[in-house]
Structures are given as structure tokens and as C-alpha cells.
User: What shape does this take?
Amino acid sequence: MSFQHTLATPVSCAGIGLHSGKCVTLTLRPAPADAGIVFVRSDLGGARVSATARNVVDTSLATKLSHRGVRVSTVEHILAALHGLGVDNAVVELDAEEVPIMDGSAAPFVVLIRAAGIREQRKARRILVIARTVQVKDGDKLAELRPSDRFRVSYTIDFEHPSISTQFFDYRHSESAFERDLSRARTFGFLHEVEALQAMGLAQGGSLDNAVVVGADAILNVEGLRFSDEFVRHKVLDAIGDLSLAGFRIAGHLLAKKAGHSMNQALLAELFSNRDNYRIVEGAFEAELPAPQPLSVLENAVA
Ligand SMILES: [Zn+2]
Assistant: This one.
């Protein structure tokens, strides 16, 4: 039996918003069972925005949520950290619109959640079980959820740049795997894109301290990469944050190729468009599924 979890105590950190460049304080607080993850804007009288797919309003640069005109943006890394460590219910309080970017990864939020501690609650977890494969395609981009006895992500990226090129990562979820293999992977951007965004008044807080920046033919960060395939690991991290907006733990296997925030949300919309695509179970899920496919089959499927 799997029970819901929340934080044991409140905990805070401060950092800058990637786009605003302004200082923002983030406080995580415990929340009751079935509350889910709720963002609270303390600078707007405590206005609330639930972390659910129906509140997603923009996915162009990061994932942005809005409810009754109240917005929170760049939510994917804090959502990934909460989901990755098994926190079902929490309040994420902000005194500005943007979640602080910290070092561009989810690792600082993992440290924060570990410092707060995680507490089991008395209600059973609800798990969304993928009942049949759902898929969205856009040219050569693909995002697909397949039935699986647990949460798994197989991700392929393909950039025409020697520092990135083609990378594949196969992730089978556990809290330790999340912390070890994904949480430290940083967001990345190309120098020409960063310069264009800054000319538009965006990415004002963006720097080599909170992103891997890819120049014309090399990575500009003097410290180099944290993993040789840090780019694809970060895409998996983003996908976990985005899919957490389903509002449930997912028993399913995400296959993604050249996808991103927009494709992840389109996939959730497709999933929820037909009640036969999924079922919701409480507490535990006994799989009646074929054995997991070997990696070689998957690599061919997304190649
Ligand atoms: Zn990201």
C-alpha cells in the first residue's frame, strides 16, 4: 500500500527569477492529504494556483500556470523535485511570479525538501494507470505514453551541434534514481538564443551560474558538464515536472523524441481527452502487463 506524503516542516530559500532577474523567496509548506501541489502568491494576498494541467497557459520558454488572472511561471523544476522525491501535497509560496531558477537544476530544491523532511499521511495515493497507448506527433517530434507497471521515461534529443548531437536516456523512476541521475542536470540554452531573449527583455537573470550555455562550437561554462549527457537528462527532468501536472503518480512509460514543454502538455490533453485511456487506482497497482521491453527495441522505436 502506498500512502500520500507531505513535508514535515516549512522551509525557505531565495534566488532570482530567470526572466525577471529579480530576487524571489520560495517557501515550501506542508499541506493536507488530497490537496496536491498548490502555488500561493504571498505578494498578491495569498492568491492560489493549483499545479494541474488545466491551469497551464503557456509553454513557450518554461511552463506557466494561471488561475483567475494569477500567474506562476517556470514551475517545472520545483514540481519535478517534489514529484521525484514522492511529495504529493505541498504549498509552494512565492513573493513574485517566477520560481527562482537557482542553479538551473532541481538539486537545490532536493536539498531544501530533504532539509524539511517528508512525512507520510493517512490517505492512500491515487495512481493514474495508462490503459492504452496515447501519442502526440508534430513533424519529427514525438511524445507517447504506454502502459507500464511503473513510471519510466525513454527520451531522445537530436541537436545539430557537436556539443550535444544525439543523446538517449532511459530512466526508471525511484527516489534515489531521481536524486542521483536527474536532479543535478541543468537547463541549457544556445548563446544566440540567450542574446535574443535578453534583447527582448527576457532571461534577465540568465547566466553561466544557472544554465549550460552552448556557444557556436563549444560549451561556455568553464566548469564543463555535470554529466556527459546532461542535456537529455535535463529534458527527462522537465518531462517529470510537466507530467506531474496530471495530478497523480503515473504508472506508464513516456517515450519522447525531440519533445518539450508544449508536447508534454499536448500529451496530457490527449490522455485526458478519452476516459478509456487511463484508470485511477488507490494505494497499490498490481500490474497485468507484458514484461518491459529491452532497451534496443526502445532505441529503434524512437530513432
Ligand atoms: Zn528545465
